[in-house]
């Protein structure tokens, strides 16, 4: 799966939200809180432009490309319930997001890298796909290796106490239990999902 490797602070400034959580990107975007290119006078953003920004928030925040977003959208559209809410809940259930929200890592790119390298187990089985969709009752643990245990213990301590009601994280055992599926109110990304659904339905 492709991922963005360009200047992260520029994306944060363009979207007006800290989609990239690394310390360097946050500091750089805070130094210039206005969008890039604002030295020149800009026209009022169109409805299309506003919807595009909301869609870009989802792509950069969860770290996937256009075709993967549309794949999630198609799945959400064919699932019973509100399409926009279903879309965001699917994104939240990705394994890389669960690893990040549980508190194993400081950022989603860190979570994705660890998963791809085989550092994490789901229900005792190695999973190396960041896009893996978790279910209620799934148990996520770190592979039983001293160097990995030390690494993720330090990262989890730096991350602090996670604020996620649907994941129970035990730092001493480096174990996260998905106690329930997230609701739309528990989605971590503030986004106007109605605009995104209208954009993707064109």
TrEMBL record:
GO terms for cellular component: small ribosomal subunit. Coiled coil: none annotated. InterPro entries: Ribosomal_uS4, Ribosomal_uS4_bac-type, Ribosomal_uS4_N, S4_RNA-bd, S4_RNA-bd_sf. Keywords: Ribonucleoprotein, Ribosomal protein, RNA-binding, rRNA-binding. Part of the 30S ribosomal subunit. Contacts protein S5. The interaction surface between S4 and S5 is involved in control of translational fidelity. With S5 and S12 plays an important role in translational accuracy. One of the primary rRNA binding proteins, it binds directly to 16S rRNA where it nucleates assembly of the body of the 30S subunit. HAMAP family: Ribosomal_uS4_B. This is Small ribosomal subunit protein uS4. It comes from Thalassoglobus neptunius. The gene is rpsD.
